[in-house]
Design brief:
It contains nine helices and two strands, in the order αααααααβααβ. The protein starts with 12 loop residues before the first helix and ends in a 12-residue tail after the last strand. The longest helix has 21 residues. 53% of the residues lie in helices and 2% in strands. By secondary structure, it is an all-alpha fold. Helix 2 packs across helix 3 and helix 6 crosses helix 7. Strands 1-2 form a two-stranded parallel sheet.
């Protein structure tokens, strides 16, 4: 018997593996939260599968998403990233990654960790929705609007409400697995 998966991931082994092992799993680790946040910002305007296929290239290009290193990137490093065909070569998104690293560190200083900050918006527990078909899941919510506005106020870029809601789904702040998906009750 095959397991039922959310419809959005069907037919691509990379998508299915991501769905089965990562999507919707609550993430409290700051390094992983930063990686997802940066990948989501690069995804803006593109498909998530495009980003997943380039994920290892992003890890290599951005020093495994080490925000303490990224914050110190200089023009030479920016130029090398702009020449790296393995990633999305968007100058504004690359520069935003550097400034987002600084804003991330600032939040860590204020709240003890980025995890403490971001999870406070959900009272430190996932929101469990009851999505019957993935197409019913909203692209944004009032909560993603609130988080987006707060992040922007703190200096983050490319963190619109849609990007933030996708981040919330990916990091398990919200469970939008279809109710008949085998992962719905596992995450």
């Amino acid at each position: 018997m095959t397991k039922h998966r959310c419809g959005w991931c069907l037919g691509d082994p990379i998508y299915e593996a991501y769905h089965d092992t990562e999507w919707g799993v609550p993430v409290k680790d700051d390094a992983t939260l930063f990686e997802f946040l940066i990948l989501e910002t690069f995804q803006a305007g593109l498909s998530w599968i495009t980003i997943l296929r380039k994920r290892e290239n992003f890890r290599k290009a951005f020093d495994n998403f080490d925000y303490k290193r990224i914050v110190n990137y200089n023009q030479k490093k920016i130029d090398s990233l702009l020449e790296d065909a393995g990633i999305i070569r968007n100058k504004l998104k690359i520069k935003a990654t550097i400034s987002n690293a600084q804003a991330f560190i600032d939040i860590q200083k204020e709240f003890g960790s980025f995890s403490n900050y971001i999870w406070a918006f959900t009272n430190d527990k996932p929101i469990k929705n009851k999505v019957k078909n993935y197409k019913e899941a909203p692209p944004t919510t009032a909560l993603s609007d609130t988080i987006s506005k707060d992040l922007k106020k703190r200096g983050f870029k490319f963190v619109g409400s849609t990007v933030i809601y996708a981040h919330m789904q990916a990091t398990g702040m919200v469970n939008d697995h279809e109710v008949n998906c085998f992962r719905y009750n596992e995450v």
